[in-house]
Automatic annotation (TrEMBL):
Pfam families: PK_Tyr_Ser-Thr. It comes from the Eukaryota. SUPFAM superfamilies: Protein kinase-like (PK-like). GO terms for molecular function: ATP binding; protein kinase activity. This is Nuclear receptor binding protein 2. It comes from Latimeria chalumnae (Coelacanth). PANTHER family: SERINE/THREONINE-PROTEIN KINASE WNK WITH NO LYSINE -RELATED (PTHR13902). InterPro entries: Kinase-like_dom_sf, Prot_kinase_dom, Ser-Thr/Tyr_kinase_cat_dom, WNK_Ser-Thr_kinase. Signal peptide: none annotated.
Length: 428
């Protein structure tokens, strides 16, 4: 129990019997854990904190993670008596792939390396979270076994033939996800009395999946050659998970490709002109009801290419040192790379006249709008405010000087107007 936050957490320890082994890999451990502390995703078990306990005879890494009280996906599937509902299967696959896509898009990419139904957790509300993201650090970097031989045999079918190669590749996680998706579809892959699940058993289980699109989706993930497996982001757009009619799909791609040529108010203006009852296309069938596409606007938000998530190095300190070190401000969660193409601001005095209230409007190059507001003293400078916005990931470093100059002009104009107003009041 975390007495400070009042929540249950998991205390994890990795012990090194030889101190020299720990020292040889200490820098890599610290770097990876600093990155993992920065990971924020609704489908990934949260890392709260870590610290190193190094003594003369031994060393250990201690880290605190979120506690998942509802149990693993493996336990849930064992309790399920009938075939999994396809809608639930799609929802689970989407959540797992969303987490993998996030990890793989980090810079450098974070490879899970231990994705099984035992390391995927499910909450009572259906939310899926993947855990044991730290496993790859100790399993590959340190060449140290972190699971029991029995557990390794039981779960070895989750890992592709290329798993033990020296080259780290995100395709390893895609293969593991494919086995998870297969187990979710068939509930359990029968080992036929063996201590492990054979390749033939996996093939038989795949052939037993009735839906051909689901079966094709799983087979894509289980390709023997790593370069033939799709990425997590690509799988999110597979037709079994992402169902958008081709006319809407084509229109969405056209819109995204040419969005910079279109006025900002285009959608709003077109929406006023749309007749929702007008028929745009129709397909007639002799043996079944036809299909009609009516006019309308569809909010398709997932076509833009993902921006890589930059993970800055965190400031994780041992517990004993927390009180002695004061950080001026927390580390930024993400580094902004998009440019600001439009800036507007409004400055008004607060009720007590001692502070000003700034409202800042920023329009980024992908047409994302940001409305920011804060109170500041007349003695505050625009450069410091701009640097703070860079630090917290609201603007890119390239826009810092331009925004500082813009705010400086706005501050000077406001002070000038305030002085004129004061002089007019004095004259009256």
């Amino acid at each position: 129990m975390d007495t400070e936050e009042g929540v249950e957490v998991v205390w994890n320890e990795v012990q090194f019997t030889e101190k020299k082994v720990f020292k040889a890999h200490e820098e890599k451990i610290v770097t990876m854990f600093d990155n993992l502390i920065q990971v924020e995703h609704p489908n990934i078990v949260k890392f709260h904190k870590y610290w190193l306990d190094v003594r003369e005879s031994r060393a250990r890494v201690i880290f605190i993670t979120e506690y998942m009280c509802s149990g693993s996906l493996k336990q849930f599937l064992k309790k399920t008596k009938k075939t999994m509902n396809q809608k639930a299967w799609k929802r689970w696959c989407t959540q797992i792939l969303s987490a993998l896509s996030y990890l793989h898009s980090c810079e450098p990419p974070i490879i899970h390396g231990n994705l099984t139904c035992d390391t995927i957790f499910i909450q009572h509300n259906g939310l899926i979270k993947i855990g044991s993201v730290w496993h790859k650090i100790f399993a590959s970097a340190l060449k140290t076994p972190t699971r029991s031989p029995r557990e390794g045999q039981r779960n070895r079918h989750f890992f592709p033939p290329d798993f033990n190669l020296a080259i780290d590749d995100t395709a390893v996680d895609i293969y593991s996800f494919g086995i998870c998706a297969l187990e979710m579809a068939v509930l359990e892959i029968q080992a036929n009395g063996e201590s492990w699940v054979s390749e033939e058993a996996v093939t038989r289980a795949g052939q037993s999946v009735e839906d051909p699109i689901m079966r094709e989706f799983i087979e894509k993930c289980l390709k023997q050659e790593p370069h033939q497996r799709p990425t997590a982001h690509d799988l999110l757009f597979h037709r079994v998970l992402f169902e958008v009619h081709s006319l809407k799909l084509q229109a969405a791609h056209c819109f995204i490709s040419n969005q910079y040529l279109m006025p900002e108010s285009l959608v709003e203006e077109k929406n006023k002109q749309v007749n929702p009852h007008a028929v745009m296309a129709e397909i007639q069938h002799k043996d079944r009801p036809g299909v009609i596409w009516r006019n309308g606007l569809y909010p398709l938000m997932n076509f833009a290419k993902p921006r890589p998530v930059l993970l800055p190095r965190g400031l994780s300190q041992p517990i004993d040192d927390d009180q002695g070190i004061k950080t001026p401000m927390p580390e930024p969660l993400e580094v902004e790379t998009r440019k600001v193409i439009q800036m507007q601001c409004n400055i008004e005095p607060n009720n007590d006249k001692s502070k000003w209230h700034l409202t800042l409007f920023l329009k980024l190059e992908d047409k994302l709008h940001r409305h920011l507001s804060c109170d500041f003293l007349p003695s505050d400078n625009s450069k410091g405010l701009a640097l703070e916005l860079v630090h917290f990931g609201f603007i890119s470093e390239e826009d810092c000087e331009r925004l500082a100059f813009f705010l400086e002009e706005a501050f000077n104009k406001h002070q000038f107007n305030s002085s004129l107003s004061s002089m007019a009041t004095s004259v009256q």
